[in-house]
Amino acid sequence: RAAMKSLRFISAEAFVSNAEFARKSLGGVAHNLFPLLFKASYLLEQGEVIHDLVENWPLVDFNMGKLLGTTVDYQEDLSHRTCSVCLESCLTGLRDYVLNHPSPYVKRLKVVDLTGIKDVEVQFCECKKTMGRWARTEMLSKLCLELLVYLQQTQCNPGTFEISIDVLIDLFVTERNYELVVQALLKKRYCPLKICCVAFRSDNLALQKFFYIIKLTDPTLLRKLEIVHNVRLEMEHLEILFNSIHFPLLMSLTLPARTFNVRRFTATDERMLTNIGEKMSEMTQLTELSMSFSILTGRIQKLLSPLKTPLKMLDVSNCSLNRADMAYLANSFHANHLEALDLSGHNIPDLYPSIFFKLLSHSSSVLRSLTLEDCNIQDTHVSMLILGLSPCQKLQEFKFLGNPLSSQALKHLFTFLCELPMLKNVEFPVPRDCYPNGITYPIDDASLCGFDQQKYESVAADLNLILLQANREDVKASTPLFGSYDAAVQETNNELGAYLIKSFKETLEKFTTSLNKMS
């Protein structure tokens, strides 16, 4: 359903739709109309008008999230449109704001906030070309360096060097853009546009480079740190990181797979784990923690009990948690505050059903997102699951891919899910009866696509009909076979693939060398 537009917004659209006229007329536009014209230009993808609006921005701040979000004149949120034409025009307009203004002394802009831009799977912009987080990182770094070169080579108004604008951004650094970003951060103090890193994500990066660049970002400002794919961070490195760098404002921490492995624990490792827990307790803002695919059996309490602030988001998927870990979570002060919980990869029905339901009941008043993928939930467990989910009236998202459920059990579950008033997104498994007899769970990648497509589509249609008949068209139900969409992976998948092939080649070479030595 299309959002209503005010008369003011319709007029703004008419004004910016003629780019040549709009650009000539900007000098006579009242300052308080710039935000309105910006959103209208963004909706119509009028790149040249966007550029000129930013180049002549008359206000103290420029906040993309607020400008594109829900406004009185047009309630539709455009912050998830990462349109390449629009974003490139914004950034070049920002560069030209520094360079081309006739009188730098009347410049008021102090803060540009680019952190409100959301990367999503489906784009609604006409050009269909996106500028993701990695590309925004690269372009802003390039512009800052180009700006410095230009200012050094050209006779500029002395006032230009007095301009200082903080540009808040979520940086995304990989091997491919590392050198560029490092140069931009090293020269930050000389550049009128100051890169201020609020969130930092690192993929495909050597550990040494990660340690170097994270210090350049000014970690005291960092609110979110994501160390995700192909950064070989292990527990000893994490201890060094926390001992050498303070993150006083950090709210969200994502660690790569296999950061922890308690199967080979020594006394030194125990000491290290204790130290990491204590260092995390100094991060008084930390409320989101993701450490999937680590082996943490029996050590969750040691890691989480020192925290002074309750966690709102916890991802311990595929962490080999035992009964004691689950009991700690269910009884800890975190349980009553958990808004998002991922326990995928644990055999909940067999190992600790009653403790899991206790955890669910403690978090039910605030829980918004629950992920239980590959948890061995079978038809016989559905009634119990419904009982456990019933108090979770704020649940917006429920993901349970990879569980051996029949189409009949899924229909039973969907009938109940219609009753959760806030639910918006459901990710459900391919029904067990769509696979050949004898399929074993968890299903390996080779067999994942070997199901009866026609039968699956028929069941999916039945499930959507259940939603439709309950007037729940607002719920999106899907089966993303290879996991949920990750904008960052999507944007850098070529580099990720190349890195994996390189790692595989190195492993094979080491293996061959070892064999040759043996023979």
UniProtKB/TrEMBL annotation:
This protein's name: Leucine-rich repeat-containing protein 14B
Coiled-coil intervals, chain numbering: none
Gene3D superfamilies: Ribonuclease Inhibitor (3.80.10.10)
Lineage: Eukaryota, Metazoa, Chordata, Craniata, Vertebrata
Keywords: Leucine-rich repeat, Repeat
Organism: Fregata magnificens
Entry superkingdom: Eukaryota
Record field: transmembrane: none
This protein's GO CC annotations: cytoplasm
Family membership noted in the UniProt record: Belongs to the PRAME family. LRRC14 subfamily.
